[in-house]
Amino acid sequence: MFRQTKTVLAKLQNVRLKGLHLSWRRRSTAAAAAAAAGEKAHQYTAGQQIHGFTVKEVVAVPELFLTAIKLTHDRTGAQYLHAARDDPNNLFSVQFRTTPMDSTGVPHILEHTVLCGSQKYPCRDPFFKMLNRSLCTFMNAFTASDYTMYPFSTQNAKDFQNLLSVYLDAVFFPCLREQDFWQEGWRLENEDPADASSPLVFKGVVFNEMKGAFSDNERLYAQHLQNKLYPDHTYSVVSGGEPLAIPDLTWEQLKDFHATHYHPSNARFFTYGDLPLEQHLKQIDQEALSKFERIQTNTRVPSQPPWASPREERVTCSPDAMAPDAARQSTLCVSYKLGDITDTFEAFTLSLLSALMTSGPNAPFYKALIEPKIGTDFSSVVGYDGSTKEASFSIGLQGIAECDADKVKNIIRQTVDSIIESGFEDERIEALLHKTEIQMKHQSSNFGLALASYIASSWNHDGDPVDLLQINNSIREFRRALQENPRFLQDKVQHYLKENSHRLTLSMSPDDSYLDKQVSAEERKLREKIAALSDSDKKDIYEKGLQLLAAQSKTQDASCLPTLKVSDIAPTLAVTPLHMTKAGGVPLQLCEQPTNGLVYFRAMCSLNTLPEDLKLYVPLFCSVITKMGCGSLDYRQQAQQMELKTGDMSVSPQVIPDCAHMDVFEQGVLLSSSCLERNLADMLQLWAEIFNSPRFDDPERLRVLVMMSAQELANGISDAGHIYAMTRAGHLLTPAGELLETFDGMDQVKFMKRIAEMSDLTPVLRTLPRIKKHLLNPENMRCAVNATPQGASESVLHLENFMTDVADKRKRFKAVRPNVIQRPLDVDNISGACKTLVADSNFQPCHMKTFFQLPFPVNFVSESIRTVPYSHKDYASLCVLARMMTAKFLHGEIREKGGAYGGGAKMAGGGLFSFYSYRDPNSVQTLSAFGKGVDWAKSSRFTQQDIDEAKLSIFSAVDSPVAPSSKGMSVFLSGITDEMKQRHRERLVHVTRENLLDVAERYLTLGSKTYGVSILGPENDAIKKDPSWVVK
Ligand SMILES: [Zn+2]
């Protein structure tokens, strides 16, 4: 489980009003049921007293189908918000205002250590253990720059009480043992803890996590920006921890910080869902709040005093080997301090304004900064950021040449002036409000969590969370303001951008010796620490290291923790009714769902006729096909139409393994889109234009899109390195794995880098239409629609027209690989429509070890093993085995002992059993930990409880809520029916110890396994000397 650090969260919140992240699920169409939950909530009245709390306010929020109830705890002053809503996926969250004044990472290390054991639950690491004793749909903890949040969600009432009890005890009564601090924070320890003569080194989970986090240049930039834009208080420090400041933190300081910050008087509780509020209040009061008295907290964040004149700063970073253009690796942004985020309407206005200025090809900053191709893309911090007490707006580029800095600054200045002069077209404002409407209607699978993050920052500074939920009020007020003053938005730009002297120009450029400097700084710090040690200190360190290792290796008794049982798992799956039909001769799957009036349209197009040499181009084709213009629309008009008429329209490459055969798979591209019912004809018209007359005539436009994609891929590696390592490790084990590496692996990253480096893109422009000919063809298509009953029936008619529209003059192509096989789309009608899969009966899996040397201070390690596909009887046993090995062995070896951020094993539908580690200080040693995991499993050192826990943990994923827009998708894409899922479910429940021993022996044992290995990481002498590795 990864715990997010502040910058990730900051990014989330960055996009939050750009993408209002508000979405939810509902159990049924029953608006009546929603009203019922609301009615129950209405029984509360202001002034009412319940279990030590007083109700302050009860407000219906019809736009989100919920009722908000605000309360205060009388004795401690703790604040509470409940959102009553007809949604079984209930959420709890408690957040504390944590405002560090140094960069030792104290709130972050505290976040980790409170989860290491508490008074009532003194076992080690109850948090991770609960993952295996619960059916939670989410469990995590976040450290933001000014608060720390602990959320979980579950659909089971008993589970909710269990988790609530563990969470309350963890945050209010943690053990905070010295040993927990060493393990999670930092410690000096012998490199080999068993060898007193091995050198002393820094270890610790957060220490390594933060080294890894700052290997991501985008995060590094975001961190510097916040520190320098608000230099006078808590935002000037790194709440997650500056790696070399972390070793200045003491255990005493950690305990102090807990006592002053994790107190009810400094806490905000949020609950969401259909469970009764009273039960929550009772439990929270009894188990925690009644044991405290009110204190005066001292965590308020003062406003940043405004600057008299603008500032300019420069920082450095490590060069990026994957950068699309090695000569252009600088980032430059201008950031403006805005108003207080607790002013809800102002914040709403400024985030809309930010989207108007920056988002999409019609936005003025996009035209002025992106299209001249001075940089590769906007910097990731661009836009409105409401994650600090006073918000900010940033604008600028990444991937620029250092000498272009002045040019960028000038353009920004000129663009601000021209926005003030000409404002925005009405149509763009309407498009944005339309987008907001769609985002409010779209239902995601964890709405409670989306709400918790949405209100967290403003509430943290005593903003009114209920105000924030009433989005319709803000929209109304916005329309009124625009009507009263047509220059409303321009005046804001004048005030906040033009006349604002609190602005920072921050540039970041690569320094070739950056990593070396970091290494020597760490060595210096280490030497200082060691120089201060006496001989007896060193002996002490050695002994403590051994004690920690012993504690980590001891079999742990978790019996103090509450748990669900395997019998609490619902025995049968709720069936999703699907209707198979045809529209214009093309197979169509209809799924009627309570979608709030949205229609989700998808189409899968086979790639079977595509020549091999074009395959590398498919991801690029997908990312540009909806962005180049079509028919009579140029790309700007196309973007405008898409914003006015649809929620989104995108295309993505697909490699879908067959559920029955390892060497069979489907290759294709998936079109995905959504719109309001009334706009379906318009949306299909747009798709038809894309099918019939896409525009591939503008090399300049293509260059912009190529640079953006290449930059995004290069930036993604440090966050998703384990995915790249797994994809590579599996790439020669199955035919599907090979294509997956081509589409999604390091091969693709390198290919896009080559394309980005080409001085002339005309050959690429000539290649893309060749792909189109093979793809957008009704003959090898199938479609799916998720909509309300009315929307679904209307969509059939629209799709008929659409198919007629695109069916003309299509050439027939023969499949390039002769080995194709047909699978019926509907298992109940095997003579009906089919899909065509590729079968490679001559495929020979190969063993390969690949090392990618990258400029990171940490590794991503993976080993993949070829096993069996989804419908095989051993598949369920392998799933349970992977989960159990992760929780009971690999987590301890790779994270606790090895110091990696994460690691484990997982079984994937394509039949590959994969081990992985994430942000790992070790490389080849971790491979041997994988091997030890297999030995551990084979030696039967696990209990029935371990098996049951693995099953529970799997079911919390298997039964996690599916949004109405995604129902039926596993049948549509993979052909996995509810019946097959039910069979898999039964197999999972019945997995025995013997099954586990058997599959570990037969599939994972050296000698009998077929496997591949891959590592992404820094220069590695051991691997370089070993000829069995392929170094890339
Ligand atoms: Zn962390």
Taken as a percent bin, the fraction of beta residues is: 15-25%
Mean pLDDT: 91
What is the number of E strands? 31
Low-confidence regions: 1-36
Secondary-structure class? alpha+beta
Helicity range: 40-55%
Distance between the termini: 30 Å
Query: Largest sheet at a glance?
Result: 9 strands, mixed
Gross geometry: globular
Radius of gyration: 28 Å
What binds here, in terms of ligands, is: zinc ion
How many individual helices? 35
Outline the structure in words.
This protein is α+β, with helices and mostly antiparallel strands. Helix content is 43%, strand content 20%. It is built from 35 helices and 31 strands. The strands form five sheets. Strands 1, 2, 3, 4, 5, 6, 7, 8 and 11 form a nine-stranded mixed sheet that branches. Strands 18, 19, 20, 21, 22, 23, 24 and 25 form an eight-stranded mixed sheet that branches. Helix 11 packs across helix 17 and helix 25 (735-744) runs parallel beside helix 26. The longest helix has 31 residues, at 699-729. The chain is globular. The two termini are 30 Å apart. Bound molecules: zinc ion. Zinc ion (ZN) binds at residues 3, 5, 108, 112, 206, 209.
How is this structure best summarized?
The protein has 35 helices and 31 strands. A hairpin with a 5-residue loop joins strand 3 (66-73) and strand 4 (79-84). The longest helix is centred in the last third of the chain and has 31 residues, at 699-729.
